[in-house]
User: What shape does this take?
Amino acid sequence: MPRNDSTVKKNKVAQPIKRKSATKKGKSSNYNAYMNVKLAELKKADPKLAHSDAFKKAFDAWKAEQKGKAK
Assistant: This one.
């Protein structure tokens, strides 16, 4: 038996804290899935293209595709 309890407490390892995320991660929307694929295609075609420019092109393609589906 140890002389004092402080030596026993020092050997214990603190358990990691499990935190719940603020939002649940669910299925990607069609828009998010489309943008991920389109951005990858644009970056592969032109690696020097800035992200903002690639995003604009991908968004314009998304709008055009949605207009085509609406007709």
Notes: The radius of gyration is 26 Å. The first helix runs from residue 6 to 10. The chain has a mean pLDDT of 83.
